[in-house]
Amino acid sequence: MDTIQHIVNRGVDKRVIFNDNQDYLRFIHDMFEFNDEEPINSTWYKFKKSNNPEISVIRRRNIEKAPRKLLVDILAFCLMPNHYHLLLTPRKENAVPKFMKKLNMGYARYFNTKNTRSGALFEGRYRSVDVIEQAHFLYVPFYIHLNPLDLHAPSWRNGLIQNSSEALNFLENYRWSSFPDYMGKKNFPSVTSRDFLLEFFEGAEKHKQDMLDWLQEREPDGKGSVFLE
């Protein structure tokens, strides 16, 4: 198995780095566009300000573009208001640092331009943990996709879920995560490489049931254990 890396980065001083839907969409666009060995042609997409949070800030130019030469496979992701998680496998040596430099610098440039600010956006380069042990590998994809519960049922970090069905429904409909795509919903399917994890988790339905089982074990009458970062 190729090296899998769990990447985490937060806003400087824990500041919010995604203010609205446009910001989330821009970062997801950047995950796709910067995942390329070739330099990004800045004329391919143009940033357009909009007061409507439902309108993407990305406007595609009508020019030809060569197919991407991927730096990494993005296995999973989750964007939260002040941080993000990525699960990556490199396609070549030093691919992860190259991808992360392009991603962080590109998004910070967009964010600072949009908000008329300067200075660092993120608290540091990023934090990376190699996923080596099988137990860690089993845990990380679930943990990444469970993060949005901080916005819905924050007691999950103490091993307490009041309503597992509502929690699962929230996760399935949280747009800024790869979990909906793993459940078979077309959210941002072109961003992630899901075949490896879906095979490991024995398909979308089995993965959904495993997630529901985990949540149910943490209901007041369940017998689950605490699951923390």
From TrEMBL:
<dbReference type="Pfam" id="PF01797">
    <property type="entry name" value="Y1_Tnp"/>
</dbReference>
<dbReference type="InterPro" id="IPR036515">
    <property type="entry name" value="Transposase_17_sf"/>
</dbReference>
<dbReference type="GO" id="GO:0004803">
    <property type="term" value="F:transposase activity"/>
</dbReference>
<feature type="domain" description="Transposase IS200-like">
    <location>
        <begin position="1"/>
        <end position="147"/>
    </location>
</feature>
<dbReference type="InterPro" id="IPR002686">
    <property type="entry name" value="Transposase_17"/>
</dbReference>
<protein>
    <recommendedName>
        <fullName>Transposase IS200-like domain-containing protein</fullName>
    </recommendedName>
</protein>
<dbReference type="GO" id="GO:0006313">
    <property type="term" value="P:DNA transposition"/>
</dbReference>
<dbReference type="GO" id="GO:0003677">
    <property type="term" value="F:DNA binding"/>
</dbReference>
